[in-house]
Write a structure and sequence with these properties.
mainly alpha; symporter activity; membrane; single chain; CNT_C_dom; nucleoside transmembrane transporter activity; C_nuclsd_transpt; 9 helices
């Protein structure tokens, strides 16, 4: 849907695989060795890309935190990419139908869920889910979310639409099709946005259909 095919392809109705004598395996052992080497290159590229992207995010967060101290933006949460994106996603969290009244927080669960979505986009879904499911109330602003907010957040966080996945995507596809590496890099950010929108769409549908999580899934649904 994001990149529709508007022209008739050359392989429509038939597929012709050209001979590649340069990379043609002589026997099964040779083919096994070539596959193993390709796997090592892909795995190495993924690891290096992830490390570089995570290091870049950490470097930017370090600069923002250092700068935020001079602006007195350090307590209780330091200035980071996650914090900035969390506030930018506040309207999105509101439109998803997150609980607007919960405890003493004037904004209910809207801001915490927006920060969880930002954490998932900047870091990855594993870190976001670990914050969502952390049972300790100490220094955990995500503790005590309403069952409805937990449901919507679960759908919103369930996906690979994050910056770290860009490294995996670019690494794998660039190794499988080296000549199309530039095209992959151009569409990487667009694919990230599409992935985020897909999970947010699922979350909005869940928030629309399920009005009372406890009555729909039982008491164990919020645990």
């Amino acid at each position: 849907m994001r990149y529709p095919e508007t022209e008739e392809t050359l392989t429509a109705g038939r597929v012709v695989i050209p001979d590649d004598d340069e990379h043609k395996a002589e026997n099964a052992l040779h083919a096994f060795a070539n596959g193993a080497w390709l796997g090592i290159k892909i795995a190495g590229t993924i690891v290096c890309s992830l490390l570089c992207i995570i290091a870049l995010v950490a470097f930017i967060n370090g600069l923002l935190t250092w700068w935020g101290r001079y602006l007195n933006i350090n307590d209780p949460t330091p200035l980071t990419l996650q914090l900035i994106l969390g506030y930018l996603l506040f309207p999105v969290s509101f439109l998803l139908g997150v609980s607007r009244t919960n405890g003493t927080n004037k904004t209910g669960d809207i801001l915490p869920v927006a920060k969880l979505i930002a954490e998932k986009i900047i870091t990855n879904e594993y870190k976001a889910f670990s914050l969502l499911t952390n049972p300790s109330p100490k220094d955990n602003e995500f503790y005590g979310l309403s069952p409805r907010s937990q449901l919507i957040a679960t759908y919103a966080l369930c996906g690979f639409g994050n910056i770290g996945s860009l490294g995996i995507q670019i690494g794998i596809l660039s190794q499988l099709a080296p000549s199309r590496g530039g095209d992959v890099a151009k569409l990487a950010v667009s694919a990230l946005i599409s992935g985020v929108l897909a999970t947010l769409t699922s979350a909005s549908v869940a928030g629309l259909v399920v009005t009372n999580q406890l009555s729909s899934f039982g008491q164990n649904a919020s645990s």
